[in-house]
Fold:
Amino acid sequence: MPPEDPALEPRHPIQVVARHTGLSADVIRAWERRYSAVCPQRTATQRRLYSDADARRLLLLRRLTESGHRIGDLACLGTDALAALADGAVSQPASTVREPGPPPAPSSSSPLLDACLRAVRSLDGVAFERALAEASVQLSLPVLLEELIAPLLGVVGQRWREGPLRVAHEHFASAHLRSFLGCTLVCAAPRADGPGCVVATPSGQRHELGALMAAVVAASGGWSTLYLGADVPAEEIAFAARERGAVCVVLSICHPADDPGLPSELRRLADRIAPGTSVLVGGSAHSAYHRCIDEAGMRCLPSLSHLKAALDEMRAP
Structure:
């Protein structure tokens, strides 16, 4: 006998729910198996079917984990409690937006970081993908980016420069992380109706993982995000921003920290960008260009949490 409430009718396969919520099918299955976050019905062939209520609950869980809550703390709450918590988490007025402090201690992600480093040292792609998939289930998106992936890039780079790791290790880690972050960006489900945001690295900057993380932050925050990739000339960034009617442009500057051509590239972008379009600049090497960033009328952001706060502030009514 069908349920009296149509919202409880199990009718959506997992692929449809994944598209609707922006969660990957793997994450949905893991949240169901480990935390009983939802309890879908099964067909005679053991295919999962989700109701509208299940999809709404998963969407609320995604929003809350992206704002920093842990899935283990949320899964036991009712949907009404999740909705109330989400309304409080995302309805903060602009006047009360606080400057983010330093990121929390990475204790929660240290075992996962160790697992990733072991996989990189042994060039074990299967183990690396498994560790990253585990991290995407256990950690909220901000923690995943700032406490796992960013430190992992820093450690791999440092050990490559100092000798314990070789160029092959650095390229191996970068290739797998590029694929992982690209999938994460797709799963973040950039909103077509959100304000426009263009993300790239400027000409001469060929390291794109920082820009990919910035694109994930923007897309998960409700921005209609266009990711252009690495080493993009100022004229093309400005063109893309105009074509998309972008409210802001986000640049990542990671390496090198002494590019003599970058200041003039930033000035060209400032000259060509449409009036009213903000340019936000971050990345591990952005502070080396602090003066020319200021002179170009752009805004420096020292971390992904600062980027998220700036984007949320720009979207606040």
In short: The beta strands are 41-42, 48-49, 196-202, 224-232, 246-252, 278-282, 299-300. The first strand starts at residue 41 and ends at 42.
